[in-house]
Protein backbone atom coordinates (compact mmCIF):
# COMPACT_ATOMS: atom_id res chain seq x y z
CA UNK A 1 0.00 0.00 0.00
CA UNK A 2 1.35 3.42 -0.91
CA UNK A 3 2.03 5.82 1.90
CA UNK A 4 -0.29 8.37 0.35
CA UNK A 5 -3.23 5.99 0.60
CA UNK A 6 -2.86 5.69 4.36
CA UNK A 7 -5.20 8.04 6.20
CA UNK A 8 -6.61 8.64 9.64
CA UNK A 9 -9.56 6.37 8.93
CA UNK A 10 -7.17 3.43 8.55
CA UNK A 11 -5.84 3.86 12.08
CA UNK A 12 -9.20 3.82 13.85
CA UNK A 13 -10.84 0.42 14.32
CA UNK A 14 -14.43 0.07 13.28
CA UNK A 15 -16.85 -0.26 16.17
CA UNK A 16 -19.23 -2.50 14.28
CA UNK A 17 -22.25 -0.98 16.00
CA UNK A 18 -25.15 0.66 14.19
CA UNK A 19 -26.76 3.89 15.32
CA UNK A 20 -29.83 1.96 16.45
CA UNK A 21 -27.65 -0.47 18.38
CA UNK A 22 -25.94 2.42 20.12
CA UNK A 23 -29.23 4.07 21.10
CA UNK A 24 -30.48 0.87 22.78
CA UNK A 25 -27.10 -0.09 24.25
CA UNK A 26 -28.33 0.59 27.81
CA UNK A 27 -31.68 1.27 29.49
CA UNK A 28 -30.67 4.85 30.32
CA UNK A 29 -29.66 5.66 26.74
CA UNK A 30 -32.75 3.91 25.38
CA UNK A 31 -34.96 5.93 27.72
CA UNK A 32 -33.20 9.19 26.84
CA UNK A 33 -33.48 8.44 23.12
CA UNK A 34 -37.18 7.65 23.45
CA UNK A 35 -37.88 10.84 25.42
CA UNK A 36 -35.97 12.97 22.93
CA UNK A 37 -37.75 11.28 20.03
CA UNK A 38 -41.13 12.02 21.61
CA UNK A 39 -40.22 15.69 22.16
CA UNK A 40 -39.01 16.03 18.56
CA UNK A 41 -42.09 14.23 17.22
CA UNK A 42 -44.43 16.48 19.21
CA UNK A 43 -42.70 19.55 17.79
CA UNK A 44 -42.78 18.29 14.21
CA UNK A 45 -46.42 17.20 14.48
CA UNK A 46 -47.49 20.37 16.30
CA UNK A 47 -49.90 21.44 13.50
CA UNK A 48 -51.69 18.10 13.83
CA UNK A 49 -51.58 17.80 17.63
CA UNK A 50 -52.43 21.39 18.56
CA UNK A 51 -56.16 21.90 19.23
CA UNK A 52 -55.96 25.69 18.69
CA UNK A 53 -53.95 28.41 16.98
CA UNK A 54 -51.06 29.17 19.37
CA UNK A 55 -51.25 32.89 18.51
CA UNK A 56 -55.01 33.30 18.91
CA UNK A 57 -55.97 35.46 21.90
CA UNK A 58 -59.33 35.06 23.64
CA UNK A 59 -59.32 37.51 26.57
CA UNK A 60 -62.58 36.11 27.92
CA UNK A 61 -60.85 32.74 28.46
CA UNK A 62 -57.66 33.97 30.14
CA UNK A 63 -56.11 31.73 32.81
CA UNK A 64 -58.76 29.03 32.42
CA UNK A 65 -58.12 25.65 34.09
CA UNK A 66 -57.72 22.48 31.99
CA UNK A 67 -60.83 21.42 30.13
CA UNK A 68 -61.86 19.32 27.15
CA UNK A 69 -61.28 22.21 24.74
CA UNK A 70 -58.09 23.38 26.47
CA UNK A 71 -56.32 20.28 27.90
CA UNK A 72 -53.68 22.37 29.73
CA UNK A 73 -55.73 25.51 30.21
CA UNK A 74 -54.96 28.98 28.86
CA UNK A 75 -52.40 31.69 29.56
CA UNK A 76 -52.86 35.31 30.64
CA UNK A 77 -53.96 36.27 27.11
CA UNK A 78 -56.43 33.41 26.63
CA UNK A 79 -54.10 31.39 24.37
CA UNK A 80 -54.07 27.61 24.53
CA UNK A 81 -51.10 26.47 26.63
CA UNK A 82 -50.83 23.04 24.97
CA UNK A 83 -50.68 24.53 21.47
CA UNK A 84 -48.09 27.13 22.47
CA UNK A 85 -45.94 24.52 24.19
CA UNK A 86 -45.97 22.21 21.17
CA UNK A 87 -45.16 25.03 18.76
CA UNK A 88 -42.59 26.40 21.19
CA UNK A 89 -40.64 23.16 20.91
CA UNK A 90 -40.22 23.76 17.17
CA UNK A 91 -38.40 27.07 17.68
CA UNK A 92 -36.31 25.88 20.62
CA UNK A 93 -35.21 22.63 18.94
CA UNK A 94 -34.56 24.43 15.64
CA UNK A 95 -32.27 26.89 17.38
CA UNK A 96 -30.44 24.07 19.17
CA UNK A 97 -29.89 22.04 16.01
CA UNK A 98 -29.00 25.08 13.91
CA UNK A 99 -26.52 26.38 16.47
CA UNK A 100 -24.84 22.97 16.73
CA UNK A 101 -24.46 22.52 12.96
CA UNK A 102 -23.31 26.06 12.15
CA UNK A 103 -20.89 26.37 15.07
CA UNK A 104 -19.31 23.00 14.26
CA UNK A 105 -18.90 23.83 10.56
CA UNK A 106 -17.32 27.22 11.27
CA UNK A 107 -15.28 25.96 14.22
CA UNK A 108 -14.02 22.99 12.20
CA UNK A 109 -12.73 25.23 9.40
CA UNK A 110 -11.03 27.66 11.78
CA UNK A 111 -9.66 24.88 13.98
CA UNK A 112 -8.07 23.08 11.01
CA UNK A 113 -6.28 26.25 9.96
CA UNK A 114 -5.21 27.07 13.51
CA UNK A 115 -3.89 23.57 14.23
CA UNK A 116 -2.04 23.08 10.95
CA UNK A 117 -0.56 26.54 10.29
CA UNK A 118 1.61 27.64 13.19
CA UNK A 119 1.85 31.23 11.90
CA UNK A 120 -1.94 31.60 12.08
CA UNK A 121 -2.36 29.74 15.37
CA UNK A 122 -1.30 32.60 17.66
CA UNK A 123 -3.58 35.14 15.98
CA UNK A 124 -6.62 32.90 15.83
CA UNK A 125 -6.32 31.61 19.36
CA UNK A 126 -5.93 35.10 20.85
CA UNK A 127 -9.19 36.05 19.15
CA UNK A 128 -10.86 32.90 20.46
CA UNK A 129 -9.51 33.53 23.98
CA UNK A 130 -10.94 37.04 23.83
CA UNK A 131 -14.40 35.72 22.91
CA UNK A 132 -14.26 33.06 25.63
CA UNK A 133 -13.36 35.71 28.22
CA UNK A 134 -16.82 37.26 27.79
CA UNK A 135 -19.67 35.36 29.51
CA UNK A 136 -21.82 33.71 26.87
CA UNK A 137 -25.09 35.16 28.16
CA UNK A 138 -23.73 38.72 28.29
CA UNK A 139 -22.30 38.38 24.78
CA UNK A 140 -25.61 37.04 23.48
CA UNK A 141 -27.58 39.83 25.15
CA UNK A 142 -25.23 42.42 23.65
CA UNK A 143 -25.64 40.98 20.14
CA UNK A 144 -29.44 40.92 20.45
CA UNK A 145 -29.48 44.47 21.86
CA UNK A 146 -27.42 45.77 18.94
CA UNK A 147 -29.24 43.92 16.16
CA UNK A 148 -32.78 43.58 17.46
CA UNK A 149 -34.77 40.53 18.53
CA UNK A 150 -35.37 37.98 15.77
CA UNK A 151 -34.80 34.30 15.15
CA UNK A 152 -31.68 34.97 13.06
CA UNK A 153 -30.23 37.38 15.62
CA UNK A 154 -30.79 35.01 18.52
CA UNK A 155 -29.22 32.17 16.52
CA UNK A 156 -26.14 34.29 15.76
CA UNK A 157 -25.93 35.43 19.38
CA UNK A 158 -25.87 31.80 20.53
CA UNK A 159 -23.42 30.62 17.87
CA UNK A 160 -20.71 33.24 18.51
CA UNK A 161 -19.82 32.03 22.06
CA UNK A 162 -19.88 28.37 20.94
CA UNK A 163 -17.43 28.72 18.04
CA UNK A 164 -14.29 29.21 20.24
CA UNK A 165 -15.02 25.98 22.12
CA UNK A 166 -15.26 24.03 18.87
CA UNK A 167 -12.10 25.71 17.53
CA UNK A 168 -10.08 24.76 20.61
CA UNK A 169 -11.30 21.15 20.38
CA UNK A 170 -10.45 20.80 16.67
CA UNK A 171 -7.10 22.55 17.13
CA UNK A 172 -6.05 20.15 19.89
CA UNK A 173 -6.94 17.15 17.73
CA UNK A 174 -5.12 18.54 14.68
CA UNK A 175 -1.98 19.39 16.70
CA UNK A 176 -1.76 15.74 17.73
CA UNK A 177 -2.70 14.24 14.37
CA UNK A 178 -0.29 16.33 12.31
CA UNK A 179 2.64 14.60 14.07
CA UNK A 180 1.43 11.16 13.02
CA UNK A 181 3.56 9.23 10.47
CA UNK A 182 0.86 9.11 7.81
CA UNK A 183 0.52 12.93 7.86
CA UNK A 184 4.29 13.46 7.76
CA UNK A 185 4.52 10.96 4.89
CA UNK A 186 1.79 12.79 2.98
CA UNK A 187 3.60 16.11 3.45
CA UNK A 188 6.93 14.59 2.35
CA UNK A 189 5.34 13.16 -0.78
CA UNK A 190 4.03 16.58 -1.77
CA UNK A 191 0.34 15.85 -1.23
CA UNK A 192 -1.76 18.94 -1.81
CA UNK A 193 -2.77 20.91 1.27
CA UNK A 194 -6.56 20.53 0.77
CA UNK A 195 -6.13 16.75 0.48
CA UNK A 196 -4.07 16.61 3.68
CA UNK A 197 -6.66 18.60 5.58
CA UNK A 198 -9.68 16.79 4.10
CA UNK A 199 -8.42 13.21 3.99
CA UNK A 200 -5.80 12.91 6.72
CA UNK A 201 -6.67 15.42 9.44
CA UNK A 202 -10.40 16.08 9.35
CA UNK A 203 -11.47 12.43 9.93
CA UNK A 204 -9.73 12.57 13.31
CA UNK A 205 -12.13 15.31 14.42
CA UNK A 206 -15.38 13.48 13.62
CA UNK A 207 -15.72 11.55 16.89
CA UNK A 208 -15.06 14.48 19.27
CA UNK A 209 -17.21 16.79 17.14
CA UNK A 210 -20.17 14.42 17.36
CA UNK A 211 -19.94 14.57 21.14
CA UNK A 212 -19.35 18.33 21.17
CA UNK A 213 -22.33 18.82 18.88
CA UNK A 214 -24.70 17.28 21.42
CA UNK A 215 -23.44 19.60 24.13
CA UNK A 216 -23.71 22.66 21.87
CA UNK A 217 -27.27 21.69 20.96
CA UNK A 218 -28.32 21.35 24.60
CA UNK A 219 -26.53 24.56 25.56
CA UNK A 220 -28.16 26.48 22.70
CA UNK A 221 -31.65 25.35 23.72
CA UNK A 222 -30.99 26.45 27.30
CA UNK A 223 -29.44 29.76 26.24
CA UNK A 224 -32.43 30.59 24.04
CA UNK A 225 -34.75 29.90 26.96
CA UNK A 226 -32.64 32.13 29.23
CA UNK A 227 -32.60 34.96 26.70
CA UNK A 228 -36.37 34.73 26.21
CA UNK A 229 -36.94 34.54 29.96
CA UNK A 230 -34.88 37.72 30.41
CA UNK A 231 -36.77 39.47 27.62
CA UNK A 232 -33.77 39.53 25.26
CA UNK A 233 -34.82 36.73 22.95
CA UNK A 234 -37.37 36.28 20.20
CA UNK A 235 -40.42 38.56 20.27
CA UNK A 236 -42.69 37.64 23.22
CA UNK A 237 -45.71 36.69 21.11
CA UNK A 238 -43.69 33.98 19.33
CA UNK A 239 -44.22 30.64 21.11
CA UNK A 240 -40.95 29.34 22.56
CA UNK A 241 -40.42 27.52 25.82
CA UNK A 242 -38.54 30.51 27.23
CA UNK A 243 -41.23 33.00 26.21
CA UNK A 244 -43.99 30.87 27.73
CA UNK A 245 -42.12 30.66 31.04
CA UNK A 246 -41.35 34.40 30.94
CA UNK A 247 -45.04 35.23 30.51
CA UNK A 248 -45.92 32.86 33.35
CA UNK A 249 -43.78 34.67 35.92
CA UNK A 250 -46.38 37.31 36.71
CA UNK A 251 -49.15 34.76 37.26
CA UNK A 252 -47.09 31.94 38.77
CA UNK A 253 -49.17 31.81 41.96
CA UNK A 254 -52.40 31.56 39.99
CA UNK A 255 -51.17 29.41 37.09
CA UNK A 256 -47.90 27.57 37.90
CA UNK A 257 -48.36 25.26 34.91
CA UNK A 258 -47.32 28.12 32.61
CA UNK A 259 -43.78 27.58 33.90
CA UNK A 260 -43.85 23.91 34.84
CA UNK A 261 -45.15 22.52 31.51
CA UNK A 262 -42.61 24.16 29.15
CA UNK A 263 -39.93 23.85 31.83
CA UNK A 264 -40.55 20.10 32.03
CA UNK A 265 -40.17 19.64 28.27
CA UNK A 266 -37.10 21.87 28.27
CA UNK A 267 -35.50 19.79 31.03
CA UNK A 268 -36.37 16.51 29.32
CA UNK A 269 -34.88 17.65 26.01
CA UNK A 270 -31.64 18.96 27.54
CA UNK A 271 -31.19 15.97 29.85
CA UNK A 272 -31.80 13.49 27.02
CA UNK A 273 -29.34 15.23 24.69
CA UNK A 274 -26.67 15.35 27.40
CA UNK A 275 -27.14 11.67 28.26
CA UNK A 276 -26.81 10.70 24.60
CA UNK A 277 -23.71 12.91 24.34
CA UNK A 278 -22.11 11.25 27.38
CA UNK A 279 -22.84 7.81 25.93
CA UNK A 280 -21.38 8.84 22.56
CA UNK A 281 -18.23 10.04 24.30
CA UNK A 282 -17.84 6.75 26.13
CA UNK A 283 -18.47 4.76 22.94
CA UNK A 284 -16.10 6.78 20.75
CA UNK A 285 -13.26 7.24 23.25
CA UNK A 286 -10.93 4.18 23.20
CA UNK A 287 -9.59 5.12 26.63
CA UNK A 288 -13.02 4.57 28.12
CA UNK A 289 -13.06 1.09 26.53
CA UNK A 290 -9.69 0.31 28.08
CA UNK A 291 -10.89 1.42 31.52
CA UNK A 292 -13.99 -0.76 31.25
CA UNK A 293 -11.88 -3.70 30.13
CA UNK A 294 -9.52 -3.26 33.07
CA UNK A 295 -12.28 -3.48 35.66
Characterization of the model:
The protein is an all-alpha fold. The chain has one domain (26-46, 72-290): MetI-like (MetI-like fold, Orthogonal Bundle), CATH 1.10.3720.10. The protein contains 13 helices and no strands. It has helices at 19-23, 27-44, 46-49, 81-116, 118-132, 136-147, 151-177, 181-188, 193-201, 206-229, 241-248, 257-284, 286-294. Residues 1-16 and 288-295 have low confidence and may be disordered.
Q: Return the CATH class.
A: Mainly Alpha
Q: Quick one: how many beta strands? A: 0
Structural class assignment = mainly alpha
Give the N-to-C terminal Cα separation: 38 Å
Helix-strand sequence: HHHHHHHHHHHHH
Helix content: 55-70%
Shape, principal axes of CA atoms: elongated
Could you name the ranges where pLDDT drops below 50 across 5 or more consecutive residues?
1-16, 288-295
- Give the total of domains: 1
Q: Indicate the CATH architecture.
A: Orthogonal Bundle
CATH names the topology as: MetI-like fold
- Major sheet: none
What is the CATH superfamily label? Answer: MetI-like
Overall pLDDT level: 83
Helix count equals 13
